Amino acid sequence: MQRTRQEAVEGLLPEQREQFILERLRTNGRVLAATLATELQTSEHTIRRHLRDLADQGHCKRVYGGALLLSPAGKPAAVRMGEAVDRKARLAAAAVSIVRPKQIILLDAGSTNVAIAEALPDNAGLTVVTNSPEACLRLLNRPGFDVILVGGRIASGAAGSLGATALLQIQQIRADLCFLGACAFDPDEGVAAFEAEDAELKRAMVKASGQIAIALTSEKLMTAAPFSVAPANAVDHLFVEADVPAERLTTLEAVCDNVMVARP
């Protein structure tokens, strides 16, 4: 006789409950302890213990009322540069549509922002300030660019300069537009980064810029990272991929004024 869904859920072992929660995290990005407790026919205390264990294993970050999937963006820069190249190029093509001639653009480090550097239009009289050596290389010897490379310490595995020198230089800039790198983005938790120094520099970029734009691959959406950068509503332009579900897109549009979907 086939068991009902409730009977199957009630019979789950602890490790099976954790796997159920992890799959739900991977599907939705966020889980609520109260909802899981009802669904799994167990106590919120038990669910919180499972979430704590999953967080200890590096799968999620505990937030008020539940947990968020941990962003997969904590890989070394060299690895990220070789991933999803075509997808990042499509995001970049959408992102540069908001660039106007003669602007001062602050370009954060990151593999998607390197793609944005490649997509920026020639002969537009742009000044590009960046802490990314890779982005700088994509702009050198191209017509119509004044390129300023921010100095500082480049940490092992990082994509750009960090530390006191970089922070001081960013604080002296007044940019029209910033393409901010984001390790993770969630409508409630905002923009986040994996390193404290990186988050500090990103916060300085936000303060130094008139408008903030972020281009995100789908796996970073509805995810978390340890260090907060800015609330979601601080982002003026959000560029996402075409595979973002309609319901999730509606959630993003509720917190960001301009959400643009890149062409597939």
TrEMBL record:
MF term (GO), any = DNA-binding transcription factor activity
Instruction: Specify the superkingdom.
Output: Bacteria
The protein depicted here goes by the name DeoR family transcriptional regulator
Q: Where is the HTH deoR-type domain?
A: 14-69
**Keywords, comma-separated and alphabetical:** Repressor, Transcription, Transcription regulation
What InterPro entries is this protein classified in? Answer: Carb_Metab_HTH_regulators, DeoR-like_C, DeoR_HTH, NagB/RpiA_transferase-like, WH-like_DNA-bd_sf, WH_DNA-bd_sf
Q: Which SMART domains match?
A: DeoRC, HTH_DEOR
Keyword Repressor listed: yes
